[in-house]
Amino acid sequence: MACIVAVLLASAGASGETLKPWTGGAAPALELKDLDGATHRLADYRGKAVLVNFWATWCGPCRAEMPSIERLRGSMAGKPFAVLAVNVGESDRLAREFAEKLPVRFTVLMDRDTRVARAWGARVLPATYVVGPDGRIRYAHFGELDWADEGIRRQIEALLELPGTRASR
Q: Using one digit for the tens of pLDDT, what is the confidence trace for 100-159?
């Protein structure tokens, strides 16, 4: 009987995950170059929901959750949604090799001096923030998460209904 209860509890925790609302204030500035040298600013994504993920190749939980972030990105194709994966403190070569090996089709940004990660309060990795179309952080999660979970996708999709979303224009 105890085994059945343990299995039920484990399966309940594995699905239907939810994100906790952010109460830490406004989104700090984010302006970084991608692996091709193009500059990306969070402000350029206004009107979209944006998942900002701070990660590193040496971080096991970061590596483990990357495929689920890619699945989330794929499931949101055609919607005003973007992923900005911010590599913290590593070289372009390491980040590029990792991104190509998976592969991922979202934008990888380089925070070589960790300035942006510190400004965002990303003290543990992975640290992920979901920014609403209005540019405000709506959710945050610290640690590994299955971003392809249907409940999480629904929370992010709900942000797309907010006024000012590119899809609602």
A: 999 999 999 999 999 999 999 999 999 999 999 999 999 999 999 999 999 999 999 999
Which domains are present in the chain? 21-168 (3.40.30.10)
Residue 115 CA: distances (Å) to CA of 89, 111, 123, 162: 9, 7, 11, 30
Question: What global pTM score does this model have?
Answer: 0.87
Q: Exposure string (b/e) for 82-109, b if CB count within 10 Å is 16 or more?
A: bbbbbbbebebeebeebbeeeebebbbb
63: Cβ contacts below 8 Å, ≥ 6 apart:
57, 98
The rounded distance, in Å, linking the Cα atoms of 95 and 10 is 33
